[in-house]
Specification:
With 131 residues, the chain is mainly alpha-helical. It has 5 helices and 2 strands. The chain has a two-stranded antiparallel sheet with strand order 1-2. Helix 1 packs antiparallel against helix 2, helix 1 packs across helix 3 (64-93) and helix 3 packs antiparallel against helix 4. The longest helix is centred in the middle third of the chain and has 30 residues, at 64-93. The protein is globular and about 40 Å long.
Length: 131
């Protein structure tokens, strides 16, 4: 079932969201300071490309640098990507078939706003993150 949902997601919005995360990652990787943010963008882009069957959990070892990084991310790229999720989610919720995918888009908004200090894990192992 996850595969069917992921394929439909890929066709409806996943590919376009992946391209948005890819563009943000490339723009952020232009400078040396932005490379960690670009890597986070690529990681979340892969998650946005194939989200069903995976979830995000908080990393216990993330500290103050990830908090400061999240503030910078929010200003530089986070709100643009969150806006893309809102627009895509609303457009998907217009149709009855698209409602689950719109809800999935809304669930990606917190990750797109504050990605640092989070880890993407399989849904059946949500507590398997590093301690």
């Amino acid at each position: 079932m996850k595969t069917i949902l992921n394929v439909i997601w890929l066709v409806l919005s996943g590919f376009w969201l992946f391209l948005a995360y890819l563009a943000a990652g490339v723009l952020l990787c232009i400078t040396i300071i932005g490379i960690p943010f670009g890597i986070a963008s690529f990681r979340i882009g892969a998650y946005a490309l194939w989200p069903f069957g995976r979830t995000t959990v908080e990393r216990r070892d993330a500290g103050a640098p990830s908090c400061i990084g999240n503030v910078l991310w929010l200003v530089l790229a986070g709100w643009w990507l969150a806006l893309a999720h809102v627009v895509t989610g609303v457009l998907l919720c217009v149709t009855i078939i698209g409602i689950p995918f719109g809800i999935a888009n809304f669930k990606l908004i917190p990750v797109s706003l504050l990605p640092l200090g989070r880890e993407i894990v399989p849904t059946d192992q949500p507590f398997s993150s590093r301690w």
